[in-house]
Write a structure and sequence with these properties.
Blueprint: E1 9-10, E2 16-19, E3 24-29, E4 32-37, E5 42-47, E6 50-55, H1 60-81, E7 84-91, E8 96-100, E9 103-107, E10 114-116, E11 122-127, E12 135-140, H2 143-155, E13 166-169
Antiparallel strand pairs: 1-6, 2-3, 3-4, 5-6, 7-12, 7-13, 8-9, 9-10, 11-12
Length: 184
Amino acid sequence: MSRIGKLPVTVASNVAVTISPDNLVTVKGSKGQLSVKVDPAITVVHDGGEIRVSRSSDEKRFRALHGLYRALIQNLVTGVTDGFRKELEIIGVGYRASMNGSVLELALGYSHPYYFVPPTGITLDVDTKTSKNPRIIVTGSDKELVGQVAAKIRSLRKPEPYKGKGIRYIDEVVRKKAGKSAGR
């Protein structure tokens, strides 16, 4: 049995869970409402304060889906209660980030600034006070969307391997290469 799939998902008392007959799991909490369509071979049962996921057979495909849908449902419950957060750091001389209303303005060493409008459900914030490098904080209730927005912002100026300039995740380690050696 799947080690992830057999674990129950604990649901807080302030979270409402509905499971439709066509296996659409909808979770509603203080930070919004999220839903996921579950494969018909996977059975989802909500009893009391927990959700249990089970599969119809031990075929390889169903074993893979078992753990997947349990993890997706866990992410829904965590998203509507606590939310998700990713932090990015901007490193480089003259690289700046600022908020203009809900639009993120980035100066990344190009001849033009970048303007990033976040999708609905995502909140962007710029923190310039805690460290010498500005930090972009991406928050939201949908884990997939938070990761996708953070990756999109990072792709505007990926960290380069020689000086390490660019946008990187807070916990990301960039391996630096040696530059050209001096002439002989």
